[in-house]
Amino acid sequence: MKIDWKSSFKIALIITAIASVGAITIALTNVLTEPIIKQNRAQREQNGLKKVFGDNATFGDKVELKEDKYQYLQAYYPVNIDSSSARVYSTKGTNAYGDVALLVGLNADFTIYNIAVMENTESYAVTLKENYLDYLINPKDKKTHEQAFEDTSVKCGATYGAKLVKDMINQAKEHYKEGK
Questions:
Q1: Higher confidence at residue 154 or residue 8?
Q2: Among residues 156, 172, 178, which one has the least CA distance to residue 113?
Q3: Residue pair 132/154 in contact by the 8 Å Cβ criterion
Q4: Which residues are paired to 80 by β-bridges?
Q5: Which helix (H) or strand (E) holds 79?
Q6: Burial code of 23-37, b = ≥16 C-beta within 10 A, e = fewer?
Q7: pLDDT for 19-60, tens place per residue?
Q8: Which residues, listed in sequence order, are joined to residue 115 by a DSSP beta bridge?
Q9: How far, CA to CA in Å, does 109 sit from each of 71, 84, 160, 174?
């Protein structure tokens, strides 16, 4: 069997041309949609900040965090509400079951003001939401968010996700307490 190099080279050129057109199309799409994606993310985060502290709060400039010690913390916003200072931490964690991103609002006394879920792709996402996050966000029996956080067991059917959330909140509290 003899190889026809001419037709093989022609086929390779055609495949290369098709791949090049596809790559250019993807690159152009990315360039065109990147500003819109960034704008949508920023708007979503602003909406999340309002979910945490409401419309009466004023938010300072975002402070990016890149400390290895705080693997879950991405940034925080200084907050002024009712003449008190507070913070909202942007957190994100990943485990073998998926990702969770939260905005964690902390009062000046380091207690939880409120929490907003920005992303929950855990494989047990519904279980995590229903058995853990919903109770933290809307505590029952007239409990505060802090009391709900202290009372809630991570053994909720989505234990690894709940532990991840608890670790994320604890890191935010720790960072705030250190006065950084």
A1: 8
A2: 172
A3: yes
A4: 58, 85
A5: strand 73-81
A6: eeeeeeeeeeeeeee
A7: 999 999 999 999 999 999 889 988 988 899 999 998 888 999
A8: 104
A9: 23, 10, 28, 12
Distance between CA atoms of 54 and 171, rounded to whole angstroms? 23
Contact call for residues 126 and 139 (beta carbons, < 8 A) = no
CA distance 54 to 42: 17
* Beta strands 84-95; 73-81: pairing state: antiparallel
Q: For residues 103 and 73, what is the distance between their CA atoms, to the nearest angstrom?
A: 10
Q: Tokens representing 136?
A: 């933290």
Both structure tokens of 118: 């920005």
Helices of type H across the chain: 5-53, 125-128, 134-137, 145-151, 159-177
